Amino acid sequence: MYRLLRRQFIFPAATVLLGALSFSEVMAMEEILIEDDSGLEGEIAIDAGDEGGGQIIFDDELELDAGIDDPFAEAEVPDLGDSHASDGLASDIAFSIDDIRLEYGQQLREASKAEGEIYAKLALSLNWQPQPQWELQLAGRMDGYSQESQTDWSELRLDYGDSFVRYRGDGFRLTAGTQTVIWGRMDEVPLSDRVSTADLSRFVLDRLEDRRRSNPVLRLESNVGSGSLDLVWLYDFRPAELPDRDSIWYPIDQVSGRILGVDRADIAPGFVQAASIVEDEPDGDGGFGVRYTASPFFGDIGLTVAHTRRSTPYYRLLAPTTFRTEYPRSWTFGADTAIDAMGATWRGEVVYTSDNPVTLRNLSYTTTEGVEWGFGVELHPGDGDARVNLQLVGSNLIDPGAIFDRTEAYSLNGEIEIPLDRERWRVKLNFLAGLDMKDLYLNPEIAFLAWEPHEFYLGLHYFDGDEQTLGGFHEDHSSVNLGWRAQF
User: Fold this and answer.
1) Can the peptide bond before residue 453 be classed as cis, meaning omega within 30 degrees of 0?
2) Where do the DSSP E strands lie in 360-472?
3) Chain Cα centroid distance, residue 202
4) Which of the four pLDDT bands, split at 50, 70 and 90, describes residue 164?
5) Distance between CA 63 and CA 80 in Å, rounded?
6) What is the residue extent of each domain of the chain?
């Protein structure tokens, strides 16, 4: 085994992971998707069409926790028995290991500045409901990264998770603290996702829910008519989680002199190699967002209005040899829908944004308007267990002038998933293919699922493309990844 597997990283990580497993077995805890002890009665309407957040719409006398913090949680109808007859304090406390992972990735191309990577993750949470109306949760995570490259580096990061105080009233829910809120209709690229914080530490190697971080929010969810209103205030701005500057996933590669999204023919590699990078995080709040969802007779709809900072940084040329991160505020107006017809689910989403950062040909920084749109279909061929999800997504800047950035981009992305051997195995393929420029990402994966809650997987991450594309920037970073993950 190559020298990444050295004592200062592997031994501590293995000790933490095995210790967590042993503790979970002693506790013998079961996973609880949704827990409610309101003891109230009423009618339930489930809105499962919004991929950006499953919702349970309730009447004025019913209060449910629909797991909106996790937009991919399975919605279950809870037991509405008399929860006021508590069995004691311990029965209201739930400890869980939300995610535990260990993964090794071997780089495939000699041109890569890395030979291999190790990633480890442990996410824990403690939930307490002292009364039916009140809920408190504390959550944290630990991420370990190690990479053998031209400059070896290892790092251990500690971070908070969804930690909050929540109050349920008649037809509303108020949450204060930190949460992960993902809005939008499209899978993997939800266009209305304007209040979440992106996790760029591993680029696109993880699923969407794992590429988001919890951020400080004050959130009010309420019934309005036959739908639900979601109001979010980002009272303290949190920028995206960036990888280490020596990581192969950092948006600027100073070894080769490349900037993500910029052609090397426009900005010389030597200029980038000699430049300094200032990661400037603005103070103050991150803005606010409002989203309304409902299910009229023809399907599901969603409307989004937000005025927020984008969490992903834009690298602005501040001085002749300096790049500085910018997080501009932008107005967003979006609409989306999902309709079940002809044995499939059809989705559509369109978003207007007022201030998209760009760099003019004279090297000055400005912002311009833009539109993003997407159409998708999800189906189960032959009414079987296999699932096919296809999406066409595009983005267009409105009258941007002469700029270095791409003025338009079109791509086809999706996922094909097939369970095998009575769901003991799973084979899937995630992909993205550019239509206006060569841009390709392929992620085939096979996973062994029979030893629940453990999952063992082997996958390929393949990148290729033109200079200005994501696949082109990371074309030397294709890898084979072997890993294990679980939840308890």
Assistant:
1) yes
2) 365-379, 387-398, 408-420, 425-434, 439-448, 454-465
3) 11
4) very high
5) 10
6) 7-486
Give per-residue pLDDT as tens, 318-359: 878 899 999 999 999 999 999 999 999 999 999 999 999 999
Indicate the pTM of the whole model. 0.81
Cβ 407 vs Cβ 396: under 8 Å: yes
Among residues 197, 163, 155, which one has the least CA distance to residue 179?
163
Q: Write down the CATH superfamily of domain 7-486.
A: Porin (2.40.160.10)
CA distance 365 to 355: 12
Neighbouring residues of 364: CB distance < 8 A, sequence distance ≥ 6: none
Distance CA 370, CA 393 (A): 14
The answer to whether 363 touches 339, Cβ cutoff 8 Å, is: no
d(CA 345, CA 359): 39
Task: Render pLDDT for 372-423 as a digit per residue (tens, 0 to 9).
Answer: 999 999 999 988 899 999 999 999 999 999 999 999 999 999 999 999 999 9
Instruction: Give me the sign of the Cα torsion angle 340, 345, 346, 348.
Output: positive
Residue 122 DSSP SS3: strand
Question: CA-to-CA distance for 200 and 214, rounded, in angstroms?
Answer: 13
